[in-house]
Amino acid sequence: MNKCLILHEAxxxxxxxxxxxxxxxxxxxxxxxxxxxxxxxxxFNGTYFQTSTGHFDVFYMRDFGICxxxxxxxxxxxxxxxxxxxxxxxxxRENKITTTITRTEKAVDMFYYSPDSLAFLLYCLxxxxxxxxxxxxxxxxxxxxQLFYNTAIDKNNxxxxxxxxxxxxxxxxxxxxxxxxxMAAMIKQEIELIRKELKIExxxxxxxxxxxxxxxKYFWNGSYFNDGLYDKDYTAGDANVFPFWCRIFxxxxxxxxxxxxxxxxxxxxxxxxxKSFPLRYTxxxxxxxxxxxxxxxxxxxxxxxxxxxxxxxxxDVIAEYDKDDKKLLERYLELYKEKIAEDQNxxxxxxxxxxxxxxxxxxxxxxxxxxxxxxxxVE
Length: 379
Description:
The protein has 379 residues and is an all-alpha fold. It has helices at 3-19, 32-43, 61-73, 77-94, 115-127, 131-136, 138-152, 178-198, 211-218, 242-245, 255-270, 292-297, 308-321, 327-343, 371-377, and strands spanning 59-60, 100-101, 107-108, 306-307, 349-350. The protein is built from 15 helices and five strands. α5 (115-127) packs parallel to α8. The longest helix has 21 residues, at 178-198.
């Protein structure tokens, strides 16, 4: 954990928070789709897609990863390729794949090594069909695959071990989370898909592990997926989206997977994780499960708050689950449309009552690249 960098980023967020006491966030003109298109255009800085036009104005592998397929569908193929070239050059030079690349082109992890950095990089390279990049960087990718295996995997069972890692919930203290185990499964899966679709062989030390079986055995409680190996007393939004978003359980091909998601959907709705609009990470019961400093500076930042990027991944799954009857998807998208129109922007995170998340030290970011996912969903 780079404490100096974290303090620098925290100061930048604090200064932006103070500025917003006197000035409004940027107001874009147009309807929901016009606003989102302007934001996506503004997030490309000529070299790469940054995560936002606000304080997250750098490259984050996770955020780019969840948007990559949508950006390709929207016609940003050249910009996607430039972004991946930028990231790969720096990752190889720094000899590591990380959550973040700073403005000074340093590869750093916020806050710890995160399994999803490698998972989303492999995914982006595959869906972008960038065979040349994979061939050129193959030795480096193989090295990083082996590093992930040696660092994060319990060799006895194939699960992510009990060390502290970052994840979609970067502030979380949950060990061997369902989300991070989904990322391990995704790494195995992407290596195999690259072999099948692009005819390129990458090393796959995870090949012997059956991740659908492991996730069912260790995380599935009969009704929904638990948040972590040892965290079973609440329902978590990300834990019940990514087993399906990553297609570890493919609801488009497997009736049993669709039945499982139906059960997860019921748990999400029963616990109100889709209220006021999708999707909340968890409920208030999880107050003790977050890193101390982060909890102090931004209380409840990843508690029962509503996160737009998680919600959009949830809607990706809903779109496949609800193919014949789009009523649920349309209802959720209408809530998003109303929020975009209200803010004249695409913001990061909201309180459970639908109001913008802000504390004395922090204000929700603006101009999120995630707007591209919304555009894909409303096509």
